[in-house]
Amino acid sequence: MTHPDTHLFLLMTAGPSPAAWLLPVASAIAEGGAWLCAALMGWAAWRQPRDRGYLLAALAMAGVASFLAHALADRIGLPRPFVLGLAPAHIAHGPSPAMPSTHATVMCFIALAFAARPTLRRWAPAAALLALATGWARVYVGVHFPSDIAAGLVLALAIQGLFMVLQGLATRRLAPAFARIQQGAGATQERLP
Fold this sequence. Notes:
With 193 residues, the chain is mainly alpha-helical. The protein has one domain (8-172). The protein contains six helices and no strands. The model has no long low-confidence stretch (mean pLDDT 88).
């Protein structure tokens, strides 16, 4: 099966003769970018205690994003560049389908989740830069096509839209219900001797 952006991939990849100084950098980013993004979420949660619930919900939605990206990739079935023999994989990776990129989906979603929350917006550029660098690195080391990364961004935008809808529903429906429960519990405690 031919991938839609083979020529762009060939311009961006390290290929069989990578730059000796750039390959270790790209490999480290390709394998560690997601961990840095998770660390950024942890840092934001530590610095912004009032946003911990939102960040926990965003983390849960990132799990949903990961699941959806894997399911779509399995359904679409486009192979990775190294599976097609276009370039070697410079990091260890299985031959699973590649589009959309799970790394791009999850990391772009996290950047969008930061951007959507005014008190967390200052971390959005760092998350977006991490997502962009990781996407580039995964193309450079031969495990993704550029369109896999772009598809991950599109999926992240859709998931962010769903996250905002769910957040709005929770605010309108669940928050009042919890407030009524707390009021009832407070009234019960006032009647106790």
